[in-house]
Amino acid sequence: MSWWRSRSRMHPQRRRQSTRALVLQLVSVLLLGWPAQGAMAPDGSELQRLRLEGPTPGLRERYLQAANEQLYRYWQQEAAKQGKTLSKPQLLFQGDSAQACGVNRVEHPMAFYCPTSQQIAMGLDLRRSAHAARGHSESAILPMDLAVLAHEWGHHVNRELGLGPYRSGFSLTAKQEELAADWRAGTILGWMLKGGWLDVEDFTAAANLMFELGDYELITPDHHGYPKERFAAITQGLATELTPGQRLGAWTLDTPESLSRPIAGDSNRETKTYDVLRFEIDRSGQISTNLLQAVFGTATCLWGNRNQCLGAALQQGKGRAYGRYTQRQLVLHCSDRSFDVSDDNFNLQPINKDGKGQAAVLAGRDC
Q1: Angle CA(130)–CA(136)–CA(140) in degrees, nearest 5?
Q2: Bigger pLDDT: 36 or 175?
Q3: Residue 1 has what pLDDT?
Q4: CA 226/CA 75 separation, integer angstroms
Q5: How is the chain split into domains, by residue range?
Q6: What letter does residue 352 receive in the DSSP assignment?
Q7: Which residues of 326-344 are buried (b: 16+ CB within 10 A; e: fewer)?
Q8: Is residue 365 within 8 Å of 247, Cβ to Cβ?
């Protein structure tokens, strides 16, 4: 495999990011020691370079092959801490032949890990199947592809090293395994953010995607988790690499669901203004869909046969919520400890009424 490397001069901001990444690696060596002999430390700079390459033939496959290598290095280091070794799964793309798990050929919308053959299939075309990816260029959705690959790698690591610390209660479905894989994907995204190899906007796009991929198939064995559960798992994984107050370029992580950056030139001591990214869930469509399904289900059970009634019952409660990080402005009033977020349908509120906890964090830091 050959990786394209840019020969152009490095932009000053990217030079600073590379310097910061080098410092972080040196600190890691001092704290954790050198990687095991023959092992290479993970380094996300190759993914950053490929992302900046722009649209070229085979970009997605080269990016994911590079990501597969870095995921192997990252989790191999974690395995070494437990005195274990980790194998590297083979990465398959659309049209490739698979060897097990009932699949002969990888096609859209396949994205899975097969433990029997230790293969990961990445046949999923997000622009055809995910609202969060529609209308975006191939290079723009690479971080979303990375999140999907990191999730499938999470299954591999779960098999080799155990589910890890993430738990979300008892379940008779595959949900616990799936959420543990989401948690591991969040860990990878946090590591990429911390190294300066992933932008905040890239992470928020990936988190939006994971929320969208949640399902409401509670009584089926393949239930992967509700949208909010999948989002919570990925943000808790993020928290293993990042801490509140950590700077990520111009942004600061305030809580797992919110980030902020001060408005340039705002020197008012009593009133502070910020651009904020807050994860918001719109349930209006979900509520209306569920009400319509309830009416239809009742009518079906009254006038239909038993099988029709059962089919209608299985469709209840599956209206989808829409969740995403939304950029707004937050105005913080230090004197009376109140805040207001633009375009959120709420007026000025006390700081302790912020369900995200962001206003209290900002007040504690800046007032």
Answers
A1: 105
A2: 175
A3: 24
A4: 27
A5: 15-88+125-242, 250-282+323-367, 284-320
A6: G
A7: beeebbbbbeeebbbbeee
A8: no
